[in-house]
């Protein structure tokens, strides 16, 4: 049975089979079709306006699709860039900070120095990566605004834009921890601006446009709204003590963002649990962002612990809130711990039981982030709650975070440098359409 039929329009063909854009572009057909305004006309109209046979066009298109069944269409790297790539900055930053903290738990100088060196290396990788991603994202907004608006209006992808906020603030936290506090303050202002911009745009689309049924729209990626919000609280609580005059106000804002993030987690997590329990979940639907279920609650724990530790330095106002903050933070940490074995079981179910072959997607960085964040938040929680026996968890859990980061980093570069499979063109096409290309 033919895939392409004479009744299909050029636009329908290219949307259903994106790889056909390469076929049309190779022979100059796409340029001709746009010039003659035939995009919304059936393929049969091609014969009426050109010397080429439309029947031959359809036949050769189907041959082209058949011999290139496993090939992917060429994509403009800027148009194809997705906000989820900022998950790499998020993961790299938190694994770096977790390594730096865990180094304090080892008395062996060689081992401790190795972790510190690794943390510093990840810091400079992030410093180099972040501006490239910002340039790519801004270029996409300028060159392909319709694609950006389509992502913002899609309930499956809109809240992924909060990875930009989280990546910005996680890098800012890295910068602060490594001693560049004045630069970190600039990142907090920038991250705050991005949070306001993305919050207004994404939730406005969700509220006004309406969405598809819950089982088709919601996934763990929605919790990136919590991650982005809590990242503002994390960086704010870190830099607040360095403001001699306005530190109290910065801490106040950090507290607000923490509470907003807590609210978002509880609401969105309720919807996700409803979706997971009452609607069938197929292996393909269990996407990597479901690991954010644990990552979002882990960063909530980290923000709460930092608010406790830094709040004790302020001798007024927030002292009364410390008991509430400790209890609420411990509540989120316990729930995050509960998620870990469940996510491992779901991963086993998908990749081992159902033998799902993983194909690279930048969303896999969303599986690294929770491991690093759980390591960092447990370290800080131990000091905030005076539960020092909890330090045994990050002392060994960091191994999973670093291993996941190294493997994903290698996988990412293998994907980037992998040469694209060369497309094959039917012999008849070369004879029939090269002449058309020369004539037009």
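^ structure tokens above, recovered residues below v
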């Amino acid at each position: 049975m033919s895939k392409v039929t004479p009744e299909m329009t050029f636009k329908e063909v290219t949307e259903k089979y994106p790889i056909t854009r390469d076929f049309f572009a190779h022979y100059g057909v796409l340029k001709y079709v746009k010039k003659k305004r035939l995009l919304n006309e059936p393929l049969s109209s091609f014969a009426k306006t050109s010397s080429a046979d439309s029947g031959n066009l359809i036949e050769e298109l189907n041959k082209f699709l058949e011999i290139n069944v496993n090939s992917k269409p060429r994509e403009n790297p800027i148009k194809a860039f997705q906000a989820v790539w900022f998950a790499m900055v998020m993961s790299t930053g938190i694994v770096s900070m977790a390594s730096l903290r865990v180094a304090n738990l080892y008395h062996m100088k060689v081992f401790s120095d190795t972790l510190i060196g690794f943390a510093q290396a990840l810091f400079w990788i992030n410093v180099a990566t972040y501006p490239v991603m910002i340039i790519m994202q801004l270029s996409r907004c300028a060159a392909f605004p319709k694609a950006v608006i389509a992502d913002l209006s899609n309930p499956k992808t809109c809240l992924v834009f909060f990875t930009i906020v989280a990546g910005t603030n996680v890098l800012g936290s890295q910068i602060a921890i490594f001693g560049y506090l004045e630069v970190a303050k600039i990142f907090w202002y920038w991250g705050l601006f991005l949070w306001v911009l993305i919050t207004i745009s994404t939730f406005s689309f969700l509220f006004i446009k309406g969405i598809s049924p819950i089982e088709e729209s919601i996934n763990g990626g929605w919790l990136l709204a919590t991650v982005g919000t809590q990242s503002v609280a994390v960086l704010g609580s870190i830099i607040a003590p360095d403001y001699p005059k306005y530190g109290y106000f910065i801490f106040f804002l950090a507290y607000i963002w923490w509470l907003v993030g807590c609210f978002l987690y509880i609401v969105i997590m309720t919807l996700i649990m409803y979706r997971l329990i009452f609607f069938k979940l197929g292996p393909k639907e269990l996407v990597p962002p479901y690991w954010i279920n644990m990552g979002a609650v882990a960063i909530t724990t980290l923000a709460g612990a930092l608010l406790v530790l830094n709040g004790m330095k302020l001798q007024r106002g927030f002292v009364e809130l410390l008991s509430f903050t400790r209890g609420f933070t411990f509540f989120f940490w316990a729930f995050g711990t509960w998620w870990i074995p469940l996510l491992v079981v779901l991963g086993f179910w998908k990749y081992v039981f159902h033998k799902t072959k993983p194909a690279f997607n930048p969303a896999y960085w969303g599986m690294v982030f929770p491991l690093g964040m759980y390591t960092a938040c447990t370290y800080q929680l131990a000091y905030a709650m005076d539960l020092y026996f909890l330090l045994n968890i990050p002392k060994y859990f960091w191994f999973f975070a670093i291993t996941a980061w190294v493997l994903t980093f290698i996988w990412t570069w293998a994907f980037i440098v992998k040469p694209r499979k060369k497309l094959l063109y039917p012999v008849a096409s070369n004879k029939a359409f090269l002449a058309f290309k020369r004539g037009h």
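DSSP finds 19 helices and no strands in the chain.
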